[in-house]
Amino acid sequence: MNLKIGIIGLPNVGKSTLFNALTNAGALAANYPFATIEPNVGIVPVPDDRLDVLGKIYDTEKIVPATVEFVDIAGLVAGASKGEGLGNKFLAHIRECHAICHVVRAFKNDDIVRADSQPETDILSQAKDDIDIINLELTLADEETKAKIAEKSRKNPKFAEENPIPFLTEKPVIYMFNVDEQGLIDDSLKSALETLVKPSKAVFVNAKLEEEMADMNRAERKEFLESYHVQDDALGELIKAAYDSLGLQSFLTAGKKEVRAWTIKKGATAPEAAGAIHSDFEKGFIAAQVCSFADLETLGSEKAVKEAGKMRTEGKTYIMRDGDVVEFRFNVSK
């Protein structure tokens, strides 16, 4: 599946700056509401260090990571569901996404005006207020949608069944708190913000630091963030939270021509995983030759894995595991 995440938040929370950092797309990041007039879209590779390891083992010609599509949706305000602040138009873009990344302001900076124009007071209470505004707008938008469905269903009783519409409030939400540099190492603040949004996932980033790391490679980013006791950059943290929230995992295919990561649901069977590559693979599935990435990395070659008895042949009922390295056998004429 191609993962699609909608990035939402009130104006001036650092949303477009974070979008730029996530995608290097150069979206306008201005200190005034609705700088994002149209949704910016960026497709970026999912960080996966296993691909480089496999690339060396197989001396591959090409490495193809899984991808995620980010959609930067214009800043919402109170009344967005009724069309205030351009919000009504852009709520429709959220419906097309698998998950929502809600960027929340959790820093104080008098030079960047808050969406409600109120002075900076308490980070926690104002973060809660901001979250409540967005959640209310999503709820009101869903209520309006339900009313429209009910009206159309009176004319056509099968309308809802024939036209399934994803409700905004049913989508998984990952809260991305934009904190200042001190906030990155403030465990008390982070714990309080995590509690505020449970059971949803929370990640903590500093938009300006992410901006500074734009030209760094992945290794340099990790080294830079170590001084802030942060394990990964915004992209890595968000991807992990999204995979966890949506129940996703990756399997890998590897050979001389190509090493590639594929995104599937946890609990997917081997035929369903084969279908992620091509529907014919699922229809004509015969078997899967499987080994774990850990065994392949440790032993150093496919030949060594087979000699160690770590290569398995699995059938239609096999439940895929994260990091499985797979070669599918299939018959397209089935």
How would you describe this protein?
- The chain has 334 residues and is α/β, with parallel strands linked by helices.
- It has 2 domains: 3-48 and 67-246, Rossmann fold (3-Layer(aba) Sandwich), CATH 3.40.50.300; 267-330, Ubiquitin-like (UB roll) (Roll).
- 40% of the residues lie in helices and 22% in strands.
- The chain is built from 14 helices and 12 strands.
- The protein has helices at residues 15-23, 49-58, 87-95, 123-155, 159-162, 181-184, 187-197, 207-212, 218-226, 234-246, 270-277, 279-283, 293-299, 302-307, and strands spanning 3-8, 40-45, 63-64, 67-72, 99-106, 173-179, 201-205, 248-254, 259-265, 285-292, 312-314, 324-330.
- The strands form 3 sheets. Strands 2-4-1-5-6-7 form a 6-stranded mixed sheet, sandwiched between helices.
- The model is unreliable at 25-37 (pLDDT under 50).
